[in-house]
Amino acid sequence: MAAAVVLDDRQQRWAYLGAAVAAAAFVGGRATQFPETVAFVASAIGLVLAGFLWFAARRRSVVMTGLASFLISFGPWTPLTWMLGAVYIAAGGLLMYRASKQAAATRAPREPRRPRKEVPEAPAAKRAPEPSKRYTPPKR
After folding, report:
1. What is the C-alpha to C-alpha distance for residues 57 and 21, in angstroms, rounded to an integer?
2. What residues contact 91, with CB distance under 8 A and at least 6 apart?
3. 137 by DSSP, 3-state: which?
4. Which residues, at least 6 apart from 81, have a Cβ–Cβ distance to it below 8 Å?
């Protein structure tokens, strides 16, 4: 079995920073609306998503961190911060792409699933086609 693909230190720091920025944006974006229950719920959902990103970075799992980035991109952004979601989609996609390339590089080469057919080296002698069973008029 191949070794697991893990975050390096730089990627882990960026994921921690991304979780902090997301948490600040989710809570700070709704701070002016806090007497309303909807603002509290939206902030709580955002904090849960940011916490999931932090947890994934703490575990150093590339796939989980990429998934958490994708989830944050669809979080409860405000009208002023909704463009940050695109950054999280790009970061998650980049993490998943790099993980895929790293896993493919460490994997052993694949063997063919079935043996290939052996091709005869010399072609068989050509023979005339069988005559048709329906009526064919004679050639003139």
Report:
1. 14
2. 14, 18, 66, 69
3. coil
4. 25, 29
* pTM: predicted TM-score of the whole model, two decimal places: 0.71
Q: What token pair was written down for 115?
A: 């043996």
Task: State residue 83 phi and psi, 5-degree precision.
Answer: -70, -20
pLDDT in tens, the chain (140 residues): 455 788 889 999 999 999 999 999 988 888 777 678 888 888 899 999 999 999 999 999 999 999 999 999 998 888 878 888 899 999 999 999 988 888 888 877 777 777 777 776 766 677 777 877 777 777 87
Query: Which tokens in the block code for residue 52?
Result: 């999931």
SS3 letters across 18-71: HHHHHHHHHHHCCHHHCCCHHHHHHHHHHHHHHHHHHHHHHHCEHHHHHHHHHH
Distance in angstroms (rounded) separating the CA atoms of residues 32 and 109: 57
Amino acid at 3: A
